[in-house]
Amino acid sequence: MRPKRSTLKSRRPPSQLEARSKIWCERAGELVLSEWRLDLLAAVGETGSLSRAAERLDVPYRTAWHKLKAVENQLGVPLLETQSGGTGGGGSVLTPQAQELIRRFRRVSQGVSELVSMRFESEFADWLG
Predict the structure, then answer these.
(1) What was the pLDDT predicted at 16?
(2) Which tens digits make up the pLDDT trace of 28-51?
(3) What average pLDDT does the segment 16-27 reach?
(4) Is residue 16 part of a domain?
(5) Domain of 114?
(6) What is the three-state SS of the chain?
(7) Sign of the C-alpha dihedral, residues 23, 69, 53, 46?
(8) Overall average pLDDT of the 83-91 stretch
(9) Which of 13, 45, 71, 84 satisfies CB 3.0 to 4.6 Å to 94 for a cystine?
(10) How many domains does the chain have?
(11) What's the confidence (pLDDT) of residue 128?
């Protein structure tokens, strides 16, 4: 029995191979910085609140707080300026150090991705057609 033609036609051609990379920073074998931690920090900057940032990334507030405190402790710099609730409500803003940390980490990450792509393309050019 032959396979139905529609099954053969429904196959999509494979898309081009692409290399992917992730970067994170460790100190003494302990994670200090990662894309996720920087995304959390950036979300605090965008929302003005650690609790809203945690909600956006779908993690418990306590987890978010511990992760950012760990980064602060490892780097020895404050990342958030917080204000307790009250009539106007509380909130958090990024310190200048946190803003610079995000910029630098993202530049490094983008640079690594570009290098990985270039190297991958040069090594696999004959397979990428």
Answers:
(1) 78
(2) 999 999 999 999 999 999 999 999
(3) 90
(4) no
(5) 24-80+89-128
(6) CCCCHHHHHCCCCCCCCCCCCCCEEEECCEEEEEHHHHHHHHHHHHHCCHHHHHHHCCCCHHHHHHHHHHHHHHHCCCCEEEECCCCCCCEEEECHHHHHHHHHHHHHHHHHHHHHHHHHHHHHHHHHC
(7) negative
(8) 71
(9) 45
(10) 1
(11) 77
Q: Is residue 124 part of a domain?
A: yes
pTM of the complete model:
0.79
Residue 1 lies in a domain: no
Distance CA 89, CA 85 (A): 4
Structure tokens at 9: 């036609």
- For residue 121 the two structure tokens come to 């393309």
- CATH (domain of 115): 1.10.10.10
Per the CB < 8 A criterion, the answer to whether 52 and 42 are in contact is: no
**Amino acid, res. 101:** L
